[in-house]
Amino acid sequence: MSKQYLSWGSADNVHPIDIFSLAVTDKQILSASGASSIQVHSTTDPDFPLAQTIEGAHKVGCHHVVTDGRGLRAVSVGFGGELQIWACRDGTWSKNDAGSGITGSGEVWAVALSENGQFLAGVSQDGHIKVWDLNVSGEQIQDYETKGSFGTCLDMSADGRLIASGHENGSVYIFSTETGRMPFSLSGLVKPVRTVAFSPAGKLLAAAGDSKVIVLFDTSSGEQVANLTGHSAWILSLAWSTTGEYLLSGSFDGKVKVWSIDTKTCVATHSETEKAVWSVKWLPKVGRSEGFATAGANRSIAFYREATGG
Amino acid sequence: MADTLEITDSPISRDDQPPQSQVQDYIDSTLTAVLAELDSPDGNPAITLKQRYKKGAFFINSDNGALETSDIETQVSYTWPGKDRHEAWKFTVVIRILEAIAQAIESGLVVSKRDIYYNDPACFGSQRVVDMVVDDIAHTIGVDRAALNVEAAAKGLVAGYYRLTTSSEKFLDARFATNDVLIPRAEDIKEIDMSDVKWVLILEKEAVYRRLARSGYHARAAAGKGILVTGKGYPDLSTRAFVRRLLDSSSRGPDTRFYALVDSDPDGMAILSTYKFGSRAHARENNKLNTPELQRLGLCTSDIVSGADSLGDDAFISLTPRDRRKAVAMLKNSPVWAVDGPEPEWRAELQQMLMLNLKAETEILYQREGGLEGWIDRKMAAYVRDR
């Protein structure tokens, strides 16, 4: 069975350089790029108007931006190694000092925020996974050590109990935030992992990268439960739909795919660009229709909506 | 082993070259003053040199496309016997080098930095010391190093479809030569006939250059006749001056293109930038050495990744911590990679390397369909088509 997603508009040339990361709230989409500003577009209006430009957010460019589940807090990481915390009030973002006490973040590459915005997790270039509590000025509360391979990606489960990281040597780790331990070791991938993502209920972890395969792990056993094959280039980004029924993936050759978790098959493929898709994100549901956004080396954000019968 | 063009024997006439007399005047007055101080019982001999720019603000001059600085220069004085052994030694080094320059000018001969060093290796300690002081002296007097009759040991190589007349009226036809030649000094070139040349390709890697030169690629490229140049990594001044000389050549057709093929890593990007915009160390000379028309033929991250399947895993190398620091420093400090700078694509390229933590060497193109030459043919054709 295939599904149809229709192009639903785009925000063109939002940034003068590659868009490396997208983050969404229920009303907005934040985009971070190799330029110095973060752009905020409204997703409640079909024209996706620009809502705010955060000028000079990261002088040498920004490679990760994440939001919490409430849409009140965002964190961005710049190529210079700096972390910025942002707070949203009435739809406008401003710099926030909740992370003023954060130390040891200089080597952090990828980050994730807990649903309630309290905890910030990051994986570093030397493979450490750290957690900071933003309710107490960013005090470091955890520091997990792995085997030292570059940490390329990170995710935190919605309930905050698990953190997963992907590494350049193909390793995938899952940590329990309660025990501070790895419940089990995962078999990982052979080639660099570029993206990891927990399903909304936290039962599955999806991981993908240069091996072009999406691997699904059962987070209660650590077993590989499925391999989703079909991409012919490196996979750079993954995202789960809110119900966990569908997984979205973007790859270096510009292809975007939607996978049914039920049937473990690809149900839709989009190839509007030949340039790398660095980031994919689902958008909040409008009625019964689900949609998503993609961005990357073509410097624009493309929006898609599920085609609903009639 | 490379052959030289044997054109360094042309004596330079002092009368025609005012910079030469500036040098003469400077050396005469400096040495006279030092001797006078040495003669007097409580004399305090000192030499003051202007130091070249080390830090401060750099920018791209939009008129000439050169990397320039607004830095205020600093001066440093060395006295004899000085406050410590280091100062006494430095004073001695400067005096010895001034003597060597005075002799070279007196006799009308050109000496190399290497010659000067080997006059007294024990005193100078390293070649680098000589290089720095020679450049500082030229900078202090306000002339090119050539005016000191000192040249760097030539490093760059050239092979190509050109003919050259030297300032001593020697004629060299490089078109059918099979041996590669050291890059001639720009000031020894009276005329370069490159009327048949469609492209100039700068290679970072000597090995890549040799492969192309040996197979005569400059005579049989799909894009027409061309010239191959390598500076063996970061180019020296004479290589940069030569490329600029090609750019300024009156026989150059308006559609002659200048390309560079460098490794996909931060050093490759910095080498590219040195040719196109200049170096921080020679900010004052960049406007005479830069090649604003230079285009980056490769190697791009996207080229490597999209051909990943045919290359095998060995083609990919992780950036080292030093590579990452260098890339970040370039993004932070150089106007070339600034967000509003002249090369947004170069900025994106460095950032993509950091994102993927990946670099690759030019040599991986040997494995591509049609080999290195086929790849260059296709890239050059794409550039001609696009612009």
Describe the global form of chain A. Answer: globular
Helix content range of chain A: under 10%
Kindly report the spatial arrangement of strands forming the biggest sheet of chain A.
Answer: 1-27-26-25
CATH architecture of chain A: 7 Propeller
What distance lies between the first and last C-alpha atoms of chain B, to the nearest angstrom? Answer: 39 Å
How large is the count of helical segments of chain B? Answer: 15
Question: How many domains, in number, for the residues of chain A?
Answer: 1
Radius of gyration of chain B: 23 Å
Shape by Cα distribution of chain B: globular
Strand proportion of chain A: over 45%
Label the structural class of chain A: mainly beta
Q: Major beta sheet of chain B, specifics? A: 6 strands, mixed
Whole-number mean pLDDT of chain B: 86
CATH-level-2 architecture of the largest domain in chain B: 3-Layer(aba) Sandwich
Count the domains of chain B.
Answer: 2
Specify the CATH class of chain A.
Mainly Beta
Average pLDDT level of chain A: 93
Tell me the number of strands of chain B. Answer: 17
Q: CATH homologous superfamily of chain A - what is it?
A: YVTN repeat-like/Quinoprotein amine dehydrogenase
Spatial strand arrangement across the major sheet of chain B? 10-7-13-12-14-15
Oligomerization category of the chains in this entry: heterodimer
